[in-house]
Amino acid sequence: MLYSGRKTVWANTRKWFASKWNMFDAFNYALFIITIILRMMLTGKQFDIVRYFYSFTVAMFSLRSLQNFLVDKNIGPKVIMIRKMVIDLVIFLSILAVFLFSIGVIYQASLFPNSPATPKLLESIIYIPYWQLFGEITLGYLEGDDIDNCTRDENIWRPAGGVGRCPEHKPFVPFLGGVYMFLTNILLVNLLIAMFSNTFQEIQDRSERIWKFYLFNIIREFSERPVVAPPFIILIHIYRVVRYVFGGENGKKEEPNEF
């Protein structure tokens, strides 16, 4: 009997985590608990970390409300499209990372040779190629022009970990930068648009069937939930635990599920 009870609890736990929304809830709850703990521990200037966690927690709980749009016939499929497109975006970023790191290493090795190995070095490799994706050309930087308040004195920039160093002048770097922006802003971005268009069309062709499927899941999920809203829902859970522990459900005939 004990084994059967454990098996039931494990099966219900697996069933609960099978839903992506429930996994998102678990993440939000864990994030909220961490935020509360940090709120009680950190003070002074470190309290900014708590503000970041609070704002991120509010943002995550706001995104959680997207599930409510699934019941709408017009908006529901769009939410599914967003989820599918995020998967496409992750695949695209894995391809983009190859181009980004490649040109970033060229920039760093050419414009700032013999830079000290510091955590700032990795940021420098990614920084310029990343913003070039959004049209920030930084042509003067690529041509080796002096940046405001920069120095070419190694005795100054090396102890500072390479911070404030002026870029070297290398004629082929602007050309490589143009090739990189051509490939990323024209080729890869259009590839991403094509992936999004394909995903949109796939969902749009089956929008009504997909909407009915998710609508059914939401109705079934909410039919199994307690009527009481949070935070008073904890009282229902306590009642269920007490009833389960003291055998209130033993021998109880299970009502047929209309779903």
Descriptive keywords:
single chain, 259 residues, mainly alpha, 69% helix, transmembrane helix
Walkthrough of the structure:
- The chain is mostly helical and 259 residues long.
- The chain folds into three domains: 19-71; 75-205, no CATH class; 213-242, no CATH class.
- It contains ten helices and no strands.
- The chain has helices at residues 2-17, 20-41, 47-64, 76-111, 119-132, 139-142, 154-157, 172-205, 207-224, 233-245.
- Helix 2 packs antiparallel against helix 3 (47-64) and helix 4 packs across helix 5.
- It starts with a helix and ends in a 14-residue tail after the last helix.
- Mean pLDDT is 81; it is low at 1-5 and 249-255.
- It is a multi-pass membrane protein.
- Residues 13-207 form the Ion transport domain.
- The chain crosses the membrane at residues 21-43, 49-66, 86-107, 179-200.
